[in-house]
Write a structure and sequence with these properties.
The protein is mostly helical. It has helices spanning 9-12, 15-20, 35-43, 45-54, 61-67, 73-85, 107-125, 127-130, 136-139, and strands spanning 59-60, 89-94, 100-105. The termini are far apart.
Amino acid sequence: MEKLHLSGDAARRPLSEVVAEGGLQGNVMAVACPSREVLNHVTSRWGVLVLMALETGALRFSQLRRQVGGVSERMLAQTLKQLEGDGFVRRQAFEVVPPHVEYSLTPLGLEVAQRVRALADWIEVNLGRILPNWDPEVLATYAPEPVA
């Protein structure tokens, strides 16, 4: 499969043409590459947490909101829409009364969730090495939450 970078002539052609001709490899360091937008969706505060929450299976909106502490309805809806648009999240609406919608990861979403999970796990394991570098006044604003 041909790998293309979005630079030179390829950057001047419509992205749909480049994709239609075969494999596309992004260049996240290029300012105009859509891979930057995908990276932003995946690594945003809420994107990472939503992907990790859905790793265990399908969740309704309210379940997801409870699991991702601190997210507003608006931000959760926006994040889900972005991740769905990238092909990472599947939204399934059931025609019942009251309406029932479930969100789950696609196979592509599971792949990316495993990768952000690895980063989050590394941070949690190494928090004791990271926090001594923080300003003590900033650190004092955090209170530990009970582990479930």
